Description:
This protein has a domain at 4-152 and 186-211 and 273-286: NAD(P)-binding Rossmann-like Domain (Rossmann fold, 3-Layer(aba) Sandwich). Helices cover 38% and strands 17% of the residues. It is built from 10 helices and 13 strands. The protein has helices at 13-25, 60-67, 84-105, 125-138, 158-169, 187-198, 218-229, 240-251, 261-266, 294-297; strands at residues 4-8, 30-35, 50-54, 72-75, 109-113, 143-149, 152-153, 173-176, 181-182, 185-186, 207-210, 216-217, 235-238. Strand 4, helix 3 and strand 5 form a beta-alpha-beta unit. The longest helix has 22 residues, at 84-105. Pfam families: Epimerase. Residues 5-210 form the NAD-dependent epimerase/dehydratase domain. This is Complex I NDUFA9 subunit family protein.
Amino acid sequence: MARRIVVTGGTGFVGRVVCERLFERDAGTAIVVPTRQLPRGNVIRMLPTVELVRCNVHEPQQLAAVFDGADTLIHLVAILHGTAQAFEQVHVALPRKLAAACRAAGVQRVVHVSALGVATDAPSAYLRSKAAGEAVWRDSGLDVTIVRPSVIFGAEDRFTNLFVRLQRLFPVLPLAGADALFQPVWVSDVARAIVASVDRPAPAGGIVEIAGPEVLSLKQIVQHVGRLAGCERPVLPLPEAIGRVQAALMALLPGTPLMSADNLLSMRVPNVASGALPGLAELGLRPATIDILGAHFAR
């Protein structure tokens, strides 16, 4: 029987790669991607088994048609910036609606993408809301695997490309949270882990940690991508108090903030794998290092 997999967030940075890996795994899999607006030039539109469905996923009435005939949900929708209310809506209320839609449609298998460092007593609203979202899925009665990645990098990411652009513009880079620790993981490895999790029963505890092979500080990541792009600049670490002022000023700029005060609070928690939970090795995957971006920046 052919699979029919719903991918919420399928038009995003990670979601597009997930759709590509699903197609590579089995070209007969029907991939349903709900989206408020049909994107222009999106690569997933070129995959013959991807069905883009206009849908507001926050509206339960619209979800019924999306899940009709589906057997699996991959849930990727998340936000990094916003108010406590926005985090609650996206990270907690939306999973409740999706879990209800899954139960109503008979969808039992769910792979939910969360984040490393989540906890109910975490310092940031982002991490606390992600922990609350995980609890929704654990209590849903569905067969759920929770995937917790570290910061995700790739040719189209906003994270490394932003720091490269800033180093090309400025002779010195002031940096809040310079000592924060990450275990950066390649987007293709995250996508392969998600796809591998679809076909495997949820592990004991239901959680898989997805992290790269190196633990690096934010300063080291910035310097490393600068070297790869041929534009490395000195990094000036900022104390957290000054970093909060910097974040507040950034929040006044139009568009998505480069960094928020809540992001700084999140960086108090090391964004690294605990080593006590299953990871990429248990899925049979060997992670790439951030050096893989060298070819991208050399273009």
